[in-house]
Structures are given as structure tokens and as C-alpha cells.
Amino acid sequence: MAKSIVCLQPLTKEQVEAIRKAAPGYTFVQCDAKQPDLEALAEAEIVISWAKGISGLLLREGTPLRWVQAWSAGVDKLPLDRLEQRGIVLTNASGVHAEPISQVIFGYMLMFVRNLHTAIRNQDRRIWNSDETETELTGKTVVIAGTGEIGAATARIAKAFGMRTIGVRRIDDPLPGFDAMYTTSRLKDAVAEGDFVINTLPLTGETRGLFDASVFSSFKEGSYYINIGRGGTTDTEALIEALENGRLRGAGLDVFEAEPLPEDHPLWDMKQVIITPHVAGLTDHYSNRLVGIFTENMKSYLAHGAPTVNVVDYLRQY
Q: Which amino acids are annotated catalytic?
């Protein structure tokens, strides 16, 4: 049986050629995730991306599947337990999103400090008005929960704006770009210092519902919350309460517990909230960056039998 790679995402001719060049001796099949080529998947040693309804086929005993390259950084929607049981290596798209998402984060932040979100609403109604509360990012403190590629890029840009940066992660070892570091167990202490709190966390057993009422009650009064990680890390009702009671001055939200956000959801009517439809990571550079990760991993896979970049730790779930 010929060794094969199956990709469930659209790629350009140049990207396909890059994969073929990096994987001599492998056949390459490209198909649509909505209508996957089941025959090709059944024979695949490597699969790029995932799709609904293919778990039973790919994860049954005896299949040649050895490696899955996820199309996203978050892997919470994949059958992690079954992948681990089969001994299949899983790599994610960490690093692909750092540039677009960090830019979205600063888009939110700049809109809030310059009241641009209010100006846009006033423009729709032809109202010339300012409440003269405009400020700037200079001198503000940003707390970044999650110090991976996105968090690191955000911290780097924040320093260029003259901001103080605080990181939150599992260990409190210092990292470049961060003025201070807190462990996740000290999240409440960290958010109490932030003018802006940025949530870049993946959804895992440890992070689900992490931002709850007790954490929001610890936020600095009049601060802002931005979530571009996963909606399930935040207790939405607690977030709404913090917005309504004034603990939070505003929120920039790209991800939600329920997506799409229901039309009757109260967040839609909150003028201090900026909502984007889970698009922070989208960019026309996405495929190129992911193919770059895959082809680099293919070198180590061919040389040593396993990829080395962005390998998911099944215990941590990222």
C-alpha cells in the first residue's frame, strides 16, 4: 500500500507542490471536508485537518493513520481520547494566528480608549458628539492570560505602545516582553492590576469556566475584558453581570460559549461590547503559514518518525 497524505482543506497549486516536495514517496490527495473522500482517508497515513463523521473510519483498529495535523490551534473539538489511545501524533496550528489575532486585540483596545466604537454608532445616527473620556494605551497595564505565540506577540506590541505587561500561565518563570508573571492560581491577583485583561487560553479541563464570577469580581474597576481564545473559558452570565454592574467598562469578544451567538442574546444590545463572529484568526496568510509548519514537521517525520513542532500534549490538551 502506498503511503499517503490526505488534506481536507483547499490549497493553492504552490502549496500542494510544497507538500509533495517535502514528502517524497507519498501520494497526496486533496478533498473537501464537507464531502471527504472516504476511500482515500481509509488509506491515509497522515491527515491534514479534520471533519465531522470521519472518526469511526480513521480511528478504527488497523488503519495506517499515524499523524494528524489540525487546521486550528485549538484541538478541543477533536476526539483526543481516541487519538491518544491509538497512539496517533497530533500537531496543531499554533503560531499561524499570532499576527492576525494580536492585531484584532489591539483593534479592540484602540477602539475602546479612543471611543471609536461609540463614534461608529453615532455616525450611523449622524450624531456629532464626544463625552470627552478619550484616553490612550500609554501607561496602561495589560494582563495576558496565556503566554504562547499569541500572548507573546501581544506583549511585544504592547511594549511598543508604552504599556506594562503581565503574563499569566502555569508557571511564573519570566518571559521576554513581560514585566511580571503570575501563575494561573494567582489569576485574581493578576486581573486586579489590569486596565485590559486578554484571554488567549485554549479550552481544556483546567480552563473551562476559568473566568467566572469570582474572577470578574477581582477585576480592576473600569477595566476591559477581551476574549479571543475559546468561549468556554468564560462564564457568560458572570461576564454580563460584570458589564452591567460597571466592574467592566467594556468587552471585546470574538468567541462565545454558544456559536453562532443567538440573535436574542443580551450581549448584542450592550453598547460597551464589541462583537466579532470568531474571525480573529482568519487571514489570507493562513494556509501558507500552516503548510510551512507541516512541511517543516515532515522533515523530522521522515528523519525520525515523528514531527517535532506544535506536538499536542494529550494530558494538557494543547
A: 230, 259, 278
pLDDT of residue 2: 72
Polymer length in residues for the chain: 318
Residues 6+ away with beta carbon under 8 Å from 201: 145, 146, 207, 210, 229, 230, 233
- Among residues 291, 283, 286, which one has the least CA distance to residue 5? 291
Segment 303-307 shows an average pLDDT of 96
Q: Identify the domain containing residue 182 by its residue range.
A: 98-275
The reply to whether 149 and 269 lie within a common domain is yes
Residue 312 lies in a domain: no
pTM score, whole prediction: 0.91
- Cis status of the peptide bond prior to 202, with omega within 30 of 0: no
Mean pLDDT of 76-101: 96
Show Cβ contacts of residue 278 under 8 Å, excluding neighbours closer than 6 positions.
Answer: 254, 255, 256, 259
For the chain, percent of residues with pLDDT exceeding 90 = 99
How far apart, in whole angstroms, are the C-alpha atoms of residue 298 and residue 310?
12
Residue with cell 497549486: 13
The sign one gets for the Cα dihedral 242, 243, 247, 251 is positive
Q: Measured on CA atoms in the order 32, 33, 35, 41, is the torsion positive or negative?
A: positive
Residues 165-189 pLDDT 10s: 999 999 999 999 999 999 999 999 9
